[in-house]
Amino acid sequence: MPGFRYGTLRPPHPTVASVRKFLEGLGPDNFLIGAFIGDRLMGTAGMHRSGGRRRHAADLGMGVADDVTGQGIGAALLRELLDAADKWFDVRRLELTVFHDQSASDPPL
Hints:
- The protein is 26% helix and 28% strand.
- The chain contains three helices and four strands.
- The protein has helices at residues 2-5, 16-24, 73-87, and strands at residues 30-37, 40-49, 57-64, 93-96.
- Strands 1-2-3-4 form a four-stranded mixed beta sheet, with helices on one face.
- Strand 3, helix 3 and strand 4 form a beta-alpha-beta unit.
- The relative contact order is 0.21.
């Protein structure tokens, strides 16, 4: 999905082994969800809670498959992250990095 990674620092084409290692390394301060239609993954979203004095804060990240953007999947993922932050993680501050120069009309590389 070239549009999914466009403008990010992530390299293209992650290996199954690297994705598995990432998932297995998630700890109790990480929350990761996926959006599926049938058995096809359409988007992911995650939250990583900070430690120490910033335990009340968490970073958010999300992405939606190139061919289903604009269909409400991102909004649904964000709603679930907000619900988890409020009800399960006691997070009071959410932080999101946005690439202001990326839009849905940007051509994938």
